[in-house]
Amino acid sequence: MTQILHNEEDRTLPARTRWAILAVVLAADVLDLLDATITNIAAPTITRDLGGGAALVQWLGTSYALALGVLLVPGGRLGDKYGRRRMFLYGLAGFVAASLACGLATTPATLVLARLTQGACAALVIPQGFGILGATWPRDQIGKAFSLFGPVMGLSAVGGPILAGFLVDADLAGLGWRPMFLINLLIGGATLLAAYRLLPRDTGSAQVTLDGPGAALLCAALLGLLGGLIDGSAHGWTGRPLTLLLLGLALFAGFCHRQRTAAAPLIQPSLLRNRGFTAGLVLGLVAFAATAGLLYVISLYFQRGLGRSPADTALGLIPLSLGIVLASVACYRLIHAYGRRLVVAGLLIVLAGCGYLALLVADSGTSVSRWALVPPVLLIGVGMGTCFGTVYDVTIGDIAPEEAGSASGSLNAVQQVANAIGTATVTTVYFHSADGGETHAMTVSLTAVAVATALCLTLVRLLPRTAGGEQHH
């Protein structure tokens, strides 16, 4: 059943085959989204079982997002060079194997290594999806395929943490948290078999170049910086974390130099000379980092402070997920009319939600009721959806059409790197403040997120006024 596509005429696949290919691509994206979020819910349970304390809590989310973010752009170029089908299959097979390793891990170190491998393999899979769809769907019908991504990803964002929470609470066969990784063997295995049978063969292009040394330098730099941050917050600021931080800074300097001299840098130099794009890149990095960390500490507060189970915690986060989904859908229709004003609105709503939640926590501490938490959590979700559904569309508002692909890949990669940085940084604030109690830790964390969000407001005026045209989407 494997099809071989060589040119435009080969797009005429049967409709049933095209929809099956779309289902394969969507399933892979759902797997990625689920595994990016499940440890938000399960981290306290995992640390009780394996040990590792606060450092393991921080590394569980950070490791996956870091590997995915750093390798996303190189992963896309590997697909262009060696064939999208080949990279999709290799990446998905590796992802399933790494999921098995996560489920069988017996020490914090082996689990973190398996999570890094998961993220790296996801970086091979995810960039291939749109290219595969572009090669198999006629241009006049591909909009139907792309229109399904929003609803499916939205349902996954709501359902993923709930599934993880209930799997942890169910303690299937006495395995505790492990089934939330082992379930990937079923879903990922079925997707891999379908992909092998359905995805079109393509040969790639030997002319495509990629900056492997640049990606390695960036990954090593971020591992050093985040490793130093996590180690220092967990075990004290001795020589080891300080050495890691200095090493990370030195490697990052090497990465910056590499980007100026590489033939195919991870981010095109012309993009960084564009003030609006650079401002959006920095704004997105800070805003995504702040809110990614906030999601993690809300989950920690629910479980450590309020004593909720993983499943109950997942249910408590439904208003946030719904807020993100509904606001993102609404902003899709409003972005070309309101442009960067929606970014301002989103940031202000996040600030209002953080303030509301901080007042509630300060007033009621660890006895706040579940229903009282719904409005501020929903408000934060609406703010996130309003901002994040628009900031990158506005960021590419005045770039050249030929730069759109590179810009989009760079922004998606930065979003994942921001998730890693935010998870490590905001949880560091939380655990560093936890000696004063869970209420104090939550209040300080909310304050840190609010400060970062307020700083983002100062960058909005540098963004293009309107969103990019249809050619960018």
Averaging pLDDT over every residue, what do you get? 87
Main beta sheet, described?
none
Overall strand count? 0
Topology order in helix (H) and strand (E) letters: HHHHHHHHHHHHHHHHHHH
Distance between the ends: 31 Å
Point out poorly predicted stretches.
1-10, 469-473
Q: What structural class should be given to the helix and strand makeup?
A: mainly alpha
Shape: globular
Question: Can you tell me about this structure?
Answer:
This protein is mainly α and 473 residues long. It is built from 19 helices and no strands. The protein has helices at residues 15-50, 53-82, 84-104, 108-125, 128-136, 142-147, 149-170, 179-198, 212-235, 239-261, 269-272, 275-305, 310-316, 318-338, 340-364, 370-388, 391-395, 404-433, 438-457. Helix 2 runs parallel beside helix 4, helix 9 runs antiparallel to helix 10 and helix 18 (404-433) runs antiparallel to helix 19. The longest helix is centred in the N-terminal third of the chain and has 36 residues, at 15-50. The model is unreliable at 1-10 and 469-473 (pLDDT under 50).
Structure summary:
This protein has 473 residues and is mostly helical.
Provide tags for this entry.
473 residues, mainly alpha, 0% strand, disordered N terminus, disordered C terminus
List the helices and strands and how they pair.
Layout: H1 15-50, H2 53-82, H3 84-104, H4 108-125, H5 128-136, H6 142-147, H7 149-170, H8 179-198, H9 212-235, H10 239-261, H11 269-272, H12 275-305, H13 310-316, H14 318-338, H15 340-364, H16 370-388, H17 391-395, H18 404-433, H19 438-457
Helix pairs in contact: 1-2, 1-4, 1-5, 1-7, 1-8, 1-12, 2-3, 2-4, 2-9, 2-18, 3-4, 3-5, 3-8, 7-13, 7-14, 9-10, 9-18, 12-18, 12-19, 14-16, 15-16, 15-19, 18-19
